[in-house]
Amino acid sequence: MNPETSPNSPRTHQQPKKVITGDHAVAIGAKLCRVDVVPAYPITPQTLIIEHIADFVSDGELDAKFLTMESEHSVMSAAAAASASGARVFTATSSQGLAFMHEMLYATAPLRLPVVMANASRTLGGPPGIWCEYNDSMGARDSGWLQLYVEDNQEALDMVIQCFRIAEDKRVLLPVMPCLDGFVLTHTVEPVEVPEQEEVDLFLPAYIPDITLDPARPSMIGTFMPAEYIMELRRQTAGAMESAKKAIGEINDEFARRFGRNYGGLIDTYRMEDAEIALITMGTVTSTSRDVVDELRREGRKVGLVKLRFFRPFPSEELRKVLSGVSAVGVFDRSISFQGGGQSYNEVRSALFGMTIPIINHLAGLGGRDVTREQIMKMFEITLKAAKGEKVNLVNWHNTRGETL
Amino acid sequence: MFEVRFHGRGGQGAVMAAQTLAEAAVIEGNYAVAFPFFGAERRGAPVLAFTRIDNKKIYSKTQVYAPDCVVVLDDTLLDTIDVVAGLKPEGIVVINSKDKPEDIDLGKELRTGAINATSVALEILKAPITNTTILGAFAKATGIIKIESLEEAIKRRFGEKLGALVGERNALAARTAFEKTVIGKSKGIKKLEPRKQWLPTYQELPVGGALVEGKTDAGLIGPGSFIENKVMGWATFRPLRDKEKCTMCLLCWFYCPEGTIVRISDRGDLMTNYDYCKGCGVCANECPVDAIKMVRARV
Do A288 and B63 touch (CB under 8 A)? Predict the structure, then answer.
């Protein structure tokens, strides 16, 4: 490991670390953001998040309204209403829960309600399963929510804090969905540095919206809107999503200055300086891939890693820039779009339109299957072959019985 | 990096043991992660948990395949599970057993630390929960963690959840086990075949995963295949029915979640099929005349 080049390298002046699960880290993040309203409905592997928050509220550590709702659809309805009334709103869900609230996701983004909701990535069935896959959140990628995928528990905590800053930024005003890998993070304990409350207060001031649902100052939010206005409304949302790119970068830099952890903004890179090929990863596979890159580098192979942190807004310009020198790129996907590869692959191809390098898709870990070092090695190997001009499959199903790579 | 795999049964605290070990390693200034096997754990069912310890940040987010140490919280698991599968040749086994290492057959001769954790736990904690006790044995057998760090981690983790006194007691249980652990070499006689699994290719998998009754090299699949999954090992207690008291009201038969209570004649005689009884105690709880008593299924 080369800690100097890793954005996750520990600082010299460390605060005491708590050994906690990803779900616990997310809950502490929400507490540090002094959220006002938490509508909640349990679902594995997210449940620990709202259980911890319920504890904080009942123990008097967090002054928030904790609402136990009758369904996820109601959770997002309550979240939208509470946000419109000016409250800072946090919730969490997963898989079927996210699917059930799908309709109300579309009520938060265009109405510019900066809700933050953690999604514990879990396969969306049937057949039912509880393990990690991105087909739950990918279905929401066109809802206007910002989406990001974290690689460890520290990033999960830190990003909840950053997410509120991003969501409430007046250039953005969009809801944000930080996604953490079900079980691989949600139920795994790691040492996590918990920022001081005062530090977070300085970084994240109170949320003061311009217009709220307040009887003293009547307003209308989310009323019927005919075609005469919708094109302009959509254009507005698209503009906000575009503006988010700048805001994300600035907020990342300010967080790095204050807390000593720099995540790179829209994307992060690892050993890309002189890389001849790159693998684009999301979530915890990024973390394991860092070790694999080190191993391949020791063998003298010039490989690098690009961590796709934000999926919305999609960092097209950033990817074009960082991949300008490579001769092939592999794209990891933990879900399938049923039109020739994963969602990430399709977005990357679109982003790199006009560049002539081979772009190879690596599907792995669907339904929660463990993505091992050997599989990641194979991804690099196939991508290297493509770089040398050898014929390889564009879409590769790793560790899938009946498929030959 | 040092990797540990914990074998236990749901409810014995294997996950808590793995997490507490990670906390102790962090107390010593190391980096550590701990996680359960990502399954649907149930009380009594065999469960797995893992800990990784290193002196620098751990990036690997995969499961553990070749552990340096295996910790067994319940030696009844030895009958059905090859607990040392994948263990490195120089690896260490820490086991809850009333036997000395020389008398424990792991199918391989391995460096083994044995402790009667159940009896230590019963004596100090007044409950057969062995997760903290076994950690004391782990410290003794591996030498990779100080017992003082474990005591501190136990006090923190258990103290936070269950109060300072419980933390103190569990730390004492670990210390006692640390002192009583016997180190030796296990026997390597029995041969445990890895359990076969039905693993079809995508072409072989029935369309949509729809299954009818079927038989494969690895056993039955589809409806009725559960008959091969005997769960008697899960039970700590099992129901005993007093035929004199029983009024044949059939409430137990109605409420049994596993259908293990069988009517064996027209007169309505009942029989409990212990192969599939998990010892949940619902029948005893529902019986209106207290004809069913729960008794220890294993000691």
Answer: no
